[in-house]
Here is the input.
Amino acid sequence: MKRFQQLAISNAQDLIFGKAPHPVVTRRGLVIGGGKVYPEINFTLPPMEINDRTFPNILEMYKAIVEDICKRALDLYVDGFVVEFETLMEMTKNPHYAIELTSAMNDILEKYYAQHGLKTALRITPNDLREFLRPPILRSGEFWEKMLETFAGCAKAGAEMLSIESTGGKEIHDAALLMCHIREVLFALTVLGVRDMTFLWEHIVEIASQSGTFAGGDTACGFGNTAMILAERRHIPKVFSSVVRTISAVRSLVAYEQGAIGPGKDCGYENVFLKAITGLPMSMEGKSAACAHLSSVGNVASAACDLWSNESIENIKLLGGMAPTICFEQLVYDCRLMNQALKTGTDSVLKSLFVQSDTGLDPQAFVLSPEMAIPIAKIIVESPTPYLAGKNVALFTIERIREALQQNQLHIEEREIAYLNLMEEQLSGLPEEESRFIELMLPSIDPAKCRIEEYGL
Amino acid sequence: MTDFVETLAFYVERGKVNKDAPYPPDLRGQEGVDELVKKALSQGVDPDTILKGCILGMQRIGEKFGQNKVFVPDLLMAAKAMNTAMVHLKPFFISGTVKRKGTFVIGTVSGDLHDIGKNLVAMVVEGNGWEVVDLGVDVQVEKFVDAVKSHPGCAVGLSALLTTTMVNMEKAIKAIKQFSPETPVIVGGAPVTQTFADQIGADGYSPDPQGAVQFLTRVFETN
Here is the structure.
């Protein structure tokens, strides 16, 4: 396994949208991270069942969505974009659905490339089915096999980037989030999560290698984004969610250590740290993903993106047209603005506006600024183990939030401050060695919730 | 007795489990619900009064949660404190000396694995005095019906977070109502709306745990 020992981007000025030290070039000629930001559109079905009876209708719906988006792309003079096909559970459980949909969408993208030179790529993101079993079985069984079958089949059918929102460690993390137990969060992300990612991504990279596709990247969606949504609803403190986000980078990094080459997946808000470490292009989402979920990081999330995504939108009719096409148009205008800034040399000004407009209002935005991302990324690569990287990053995040509060650079609710103290208290007594940390945590793991042996422990 | 109810309610609301518990930091070293309830029972305090104090504490923390004045961990610690009292009250529940307000069966519908929202609803409902039967996630229709059979007079809560699984709520409601038309069913989850709830024949919809409590209060009072 590759270990990143130094940063690919070591100063905040260079951590910027559209430019990655190691761009990805797709087979239809889309250069991601090569000086331009492209839209990445994702969509989902309206309320309906997925079965053999409804599938013909679903197939037609997906084809119509992609066709309509391609037409709009031509109307708006877009020269390239990515379609993310994030499967629904039934499509991963029955891979033939996912494969047929992939093939149909890819045919349309290929047609527009052949006829109009429209440079596109299709990303496939199967569901992590393994959590259907409680406690999850992670390394074998029907669900595991179906996931791999979906990856391999879709790669063969035309999907070019392989991604997932994996869930290893989530069975411990969910409860830890609700209790704001930062030690359990650390254990779930940097011990369990890292081990599962190591196993999972070895297989995904192998499939990518055999099929001539790209192992894109993973996200801490079920971890960092769950925290973000809970914080958005005021269920947990935003400062807690901010620390979860920075620790989550340690887990998501493993995909790249195992050989993923990007572009990173959109809902990984931690991608800003990963871009600094790996130099690989990253997809990000923010204000234009409000159709899928609310957040307080709408502008800052675009500061270092290479693809700009909407996360997901239901295929419903709105006044302007079908919702996915509307979302696509919004992304196109976001990208136009960033690309014009890149073209005219005003990119650093625009980036600075993206950052400054968000970071003083919410600690979750504050930690995603390039100025924070570089030292956090540095801590991660300089730490000897993922566990210690997580612990060090958490303590650093708390310290910097405190400093920003003292300097009136950041606003948080009064009741949040107690949680900074609480987290610091929980983290400060932890050992340096990962083995001792595991020894400390294992007795508290309920075997009814987590099969520790599935993590090789 | 009002003093005792108020004191117990305070310790439940603050999540003070027992004397050794480090939470909440400002009550460190003080006795908690465990000691208070043990002492009360030994002094012959009516178990119903103890239950009343617990429910009052949970109602207060639930209201604060609904008003965004406390976080989920505060709610969870209060629930933990209440559960400490429930351990002592268990023999009285078994003998029928004290009774819950009713039974609430809850689960995330088939094909859906999301359970954080469902768990929060279960916790708040339980804290407000109902017995909660949590069927978990990816619950098949038959399992809901079996639970209704096993818990006559219960109400049911269905949760879904996906547009493609919310349709399974309708199937569950149809099956439940076919077996027991009078069983009240409430639905919730990110894509669910009142309109959708009406369309699929649900008796109630709530976007939050407090709404579920209000629904249960209404239907159980009516019944």
